[in-house]
């Protein structure tokens, strides 16, 4: 199946693409028309193949038949793409051209309206999300600053004074304002009482 896929890719797509390029470059109208008919038939074949692959893939030699069909389309002897285009595709498209054009215009208008509608909704959702994020972010920022001003500053100040909490430092300084009797002073009074 892999070999069939690559052969179809080479002969069904790359080979015609190169010869289409040569037709455009040489400005040969006959070759140009021939390759345009091929690409129209190939596009229809690829579209139909999407559905037939689902239902007919079990059919014996299904993939080989698809390769043979592409070769038949390309062959300068059979002129398969030219034959199918002139007998079936051109008359069908000519008779339905106005309806197809109207459907395409309506589809284009609907898709444009849908794009504008969903674009506006998307902008509204994005704007609402941005406002909500900003309001939540502002509350979170003020809460973070408040916690930083109360908790974190006391921790930072405590770290700079050899990890002693500030409340202990304050108590120690208030006790230092009242002199403590030293041990040597009490011993001195005790010894003077004995003399």
From TrEMBL:
<dbReference type="Pfam" id="PF03134">
    <property type="entry name" value="TB2_DP1_HVA22"/>
</dbReference>
<keyword id="KW-1133">Transmembrane helix</keyword>
<dbReference type="InterPro" id="IPR004345">
    <property type="entry name" value="TB2_DP1_HVA22"/>
</dbReference>
<keyword id="KW-0812">Transmembrane</keyword>
<dbReference type="GO" id="GO:0008017">
    <property type="term" value="F:microtubule binding"/>
</dbReference>
<dbReference type="GO" id="GO:0071786">
    <property type="term" value="P:endoplasmic reticulum tubular network organization"/>
</dbReference>
<comment type="similarity">
    <text>Belongs to the DP1 family.</text>
</comment>
<dbReference type="GO" id="GO:0071782">
    <property type="term" value="C:endoplasmic reticulum tubular network"/>
</dbReference>
<feature type="region of interest" description="Disordered">
    <location>
        <begin position="155"/>
        <end position="195"/>
    </location>
</feature>
<protein>
    <recommendedName>
        <fullName>Receptor expression-enhancing protein</fullName>
    </recommendedName>
</protein>
<keyword id="KW-0472">Membrane</keyword>
<dbReference type="GO" id="GO:0005789">
    <property type="term" value="C:endoplasmic reticulum membrane"/>
</dbReference>
<feature type="transmembrane region" description="Helical">
    <location>
        <begin position="35"/>
        <end position="61"/>
    </location>
</feature>
<feature type="compositionally biased region" description="Low complexity">
    <location>
        <begin position="160"/>
        <end position="186"/>
    </location>
</feature>
<dbReference type="GO" id="GO:0031849">
    <property type="term" value="F:olfactory receptor binding"/>
</dbReference>
<dbReference type="GO" id="GO:0005881">
    <property type="term" value="C:cytoplasmic microtubule"/>
</dbReference>
């Amino acid at each position: 199946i892999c070999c069939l896929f690559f052969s179809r890719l080479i002969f069904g797509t790359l080979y015609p693409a190169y010869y289409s390029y040569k037709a455009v470059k040489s400005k040969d109208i006959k070759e140009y028309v021939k390759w345009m008919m091929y690409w129209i038939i190939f596009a229809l074949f690829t579209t139909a193949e999407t559905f037939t692959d689902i239902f007919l893939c079990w059919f014996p030699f299904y993939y080989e038949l698809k390769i043979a069909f592409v070769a038949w389309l390309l062959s300068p002897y059979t002129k398969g793409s030219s034959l199918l285009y002139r007998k079936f595709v051109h008359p069908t498209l000519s008779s339905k051209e106005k309806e197809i054009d109207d459907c395409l215009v309506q589809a284009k208008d609907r898709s444009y309206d849908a794009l504008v509608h969903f674009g506006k909704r998307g902008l509204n959702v994005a704007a609402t999300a941005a406002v909500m994020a900003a309001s939540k972010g502002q509350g979170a920022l003020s809460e973070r600053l408040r916690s930083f001003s109360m908790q974190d500053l006391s921790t930072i100040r405590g770290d700079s004074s050899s990890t002693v909490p500030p409340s202990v430092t304050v108590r120690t300084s208030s006790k230092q304002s009242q002199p403590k009797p030293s041990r040597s002073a009490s011993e001195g009074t005790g010894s003077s009482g004995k003399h």
